[in-house]
Amino acid sequence: MTVDKGMDGAVAVVTGGAGGLGTAICRHLAQAGARLVIGYRGSEDAAHGLAAALPGSDHVARRAAVEDSAGLAVLATEVAERYGRLDLLVNNAGITRFVPHHDLEALDDALIDEIFRTNWRGAFACVRAFRPLLEAGDGGLVINISSIAGVTAIGSNIAYCASKAAMNTMTMSLARALAPKIRVVSLSPGLAETDFVKGLDPDWWVEQTRKTPLRRLATPDDVAAAVLALATTMTFTNGCIVPVDGGRPLT
Ligand SMILES: NC(=O)c1ccc[n+]([C@@H]2O[C@H](COP(=O)([O-])OP(=O)(O)OC[C@H]3O[C@@H](n4cnc5c(N)ncnc54)[C@H](OP(=O)(O)O)[C@@H]3O)[C@@H](O)[C@H]2O)c1
Question: Where in the sequence is the domain holding 112, given as residue range(s)?
Fold first, then answer.
């Protein structure tokens, strides 16, 4: 048996690709030889800067607002015309805001809708748009960046936890529906230091570190290394939730 541990020539779309985790994911994939389509919504300059700075060549930054299904379809056509293939879609775009779980009034309908529109519907819309391209090759992969919050129900707010739990069942449904051409996996990080968790109470941060058996939080590189492993060596992994959390749920 031969094991190809690289991604030479492969093409990957990463939504929210210029964010904290997205940047590390793009970097790891590019280092392995992949060509990146870096999706952004607001971070246009950062995305173009990243495309220019990544190792390798033929990377592009493109607007990919995941609530805009029509725009995603246009992007899928462009990826097909430019590269003629898509090997990996990383549904990484996501939003949240901190709302204490007991404060039901503060979790208003607008925030709930925005969270589900982005975190769940947006990820589904990306799979729908890129499915034909992923199916056309010899083994497409979708990695949904979920969260430990989707399993523990502990996280920035109740709707965020629910959106990630819903993402996990989407992973299972799609893995069944799209097999054998496309694998679908949830990757479930624990707390990681990015803009996403700005404003978090520092005491909570310390407590989460203490409660993690490995005594540290996740880094963007931990998450990116897991993405690369799923794409290159963990090729029989499908329809499940892969944790990157240092064992946090054990305590
Ligand atoms: N950090 C953590 O502790 C942690 C833990 C578990 C899971 N996660 C998950 O990891 C993912 C990345 O988070 P992060 O920590 O890297 O946060 P981040 O730095 O805030 O990045 C989030 C990214 O999502 C993009 N995004 C937001 N709304 C979008 C939309 N409607 N359309 C397209 N892109 C959109 C943003 O793009 P623009 O800037 O271009 O608008 C941004 O690049 C999220 O799904 C999050 O739920 C994070």
Answer: 11-240
pLDDT, tens only, 161-217:
999 999 999 999 999 999 999 999 999 999 998 887 767 778 888 899 999 999 999
CATH assignment of the domain containing 147:
3.40.50.720
- Residue of minimum CA distance from atom 2 in ligand 1: 192
Phi-psi region of 153 (alpha: psi -120 to 50; beta: other; left: phi over 0): left
Interval between CA 146 and ligand 1 midpoint (Å): 11
| Active-site residue, 160 included | yes
Number of domains forming the structure of the chain: 1
Question: Is 15 part of a structural domain of the chain?
Answer: yes
Q: Which of 160, 167, 178, 244 is catalytic?
A: 160
Give the pLDDT confidence of 135-166 residue by residue, as tens digits.
999 899 999 999 999 999 999 999 999 999 99
Instruction: Evaluate whether residue 110 is within a structural domain.
Output: yes
At position 173, the amino acid (one-letter code) is S
- Specify burial of residue 216 (Cβ count, 10 A radius: 0-12, 13-18, 19+): exposed
